[in-house]
Amino acid sequence: MIVLGVESSCDETGLALYDTERGLLAHALYSQVAMHEQYGGVVPELASRDHIRRAIPLLQQVLSESGVVRQDIDAIAYTQGPGLAGALLVGASIACGLGLALDKPMLGVHHLEGHLLSPLLASQPPTFPFVALLVSGGHTQLMRVDGVGQYTLLGETLDDAAGEAFDKSAKLLGLGYPGGPAISRMAEFGDPSVYQLPRPMLHSKNLDFSFSGLKTAVLTLVKNHQTNICEQDKANIARAFVDALVEVLVAKCLAALKQTGLKRLVIAGGVGANQQLRTALNAAAEKRRFRVYYPELEFCTDNGAMIAFAGAMRLQINPEAAQRSYAFNVRPRWPLNELGI
Ligand code: ATP
Ligand code: MG
Ligand code: FE
């Protein structure tokens, strides 16, 4: 079964073809980052319009790269939510139009399920059950995953997401948008002994997180420097920020493994690309004897491959999930726990 995946929930247009027999056949991505950068964040209306411009050329690219002809596509999976309403509507209407024209069924996919299952696309995928840490631009959640659609929320952020904390702190340091990768690179040159930032909720008895205080602490440090903040100061602050955030994420992962008794930890979402986080988790895994799995770097942030894959997994479990009525609706807000099997 060949599934076409369409991702358009935020500022990346992603298309991909996944074959349940042969694996990922092709994927193509267009990031709108350069367009939104000048505004310091994503402008929803610009995002929607750009998805319209990019989707069809990307579709043609994945078809020609894979050698698949349109009629060979068995189903079309699109991101139904959560995300920006206008951006989601573009992907959904393209999926719907294609489905109607090609006479193929379609399926709405939950964006976070896409992230969550993306490590299964790697060459050495984890088996169920596992603990998953989803660390993206809009979410920070720890979950117990027993299978596709079997997600138990163990804890989540009470305010900012980890990716949001990266982006906001990077902005305070004048590092552009999205600043996660930039603040991470800068932290490499920082002296860890200069500043200590709080580790929010490190010792709370639950698996929840809170990152807004960390961003405020970065703001205070930046303000203390007034206008004369040098590159080394910025690097020291970046280092303090990354050290604090990573320590909390690792500690909560260890607590979740202990609570569930599981030995497999899966990381998903954009912050999963972070090198300091990966280094710290790998060290903890060796010491505590558990295994940690990551998506390929290119599949940490938004992409069409994870949507094609999640759609294919669902259709394999339940072929009835494919819909042939070409009325679509999107769900900009859609809690993962409302998603059944
Ligand atoms: P959601 O999936 O919750 O709706 P999103 O789709 O915007 O949010 P992702 O695409 O998964 O989120 O991830 C984007 C986030 O990942 C951004 O906040 C970005 O700064 C962060 N990020 C990407 N690479 C890195 C990195 N190397 N280090 C730290 N953060 C990173
Ligand atoms: Mg993005
Ligand atoms: Fe995402």
TrEMBL record:
The keyword Transferase applies. It catalyses: L-threonylcarbamoyladenylate + adenosine(37) in tRNA = N(6)-L-threonylcarbamoyladenosine(37) in tRNA + AMP + H(+). The keyword NAD does not apply. Its main location: cytoplasm. Substrate binds at L134, V135, S136, G137, G138, D167, G180, N274. Its EC number is 2.3.1.234. GO terms for cellular component: cytoplasm. Binds 1 Fe(2+) ion per subunit. SUPFAM superfamilies: Actin-like ATPase domain (SSF53067). Residues 24-309 form the Gcp-like domain. Keywords: Acyltransferase, Cytoplasm, Iron, Metal-binding, Transferase, tRNA processing. GO terms for biological process: tRNA threonylcarbamoyladenosine modification. Fe cation binds at H111, H115, D302. It is found in: Cytoplasm. CDD domains: ASKHA_NBD_TsaD_bac. GO terms for molecular function: iron ion binding; tRNA N(6)-L-threonylcarbamoyladenine synthase activity. Its cofactor is Fe(2+). InterPro entries: ATPase_NBD, Gcp-like_dom, KAE1/TsaD, Peptidase_M22_CS, TsaD. Belongs to the KAE1 / TsaD family. Required for the formation of a threonylcarbamoyl group on adenosine at position 37 (t(6)A37) in tRNAs that read codons beginning with adenine. Is involved in the transfer of the threonylcarbamoyl moiety of threonylcarbamoyl-AMP (TC-AMP) to the N6 group of A37, together with TsaE and TsaB. TsaD likely plays a direct catalytic role in this reaction. This is tRNA N6-adenosine threonylcarbamoyltransferase. It comes from Collimonas arenae. The gene is tsaD.
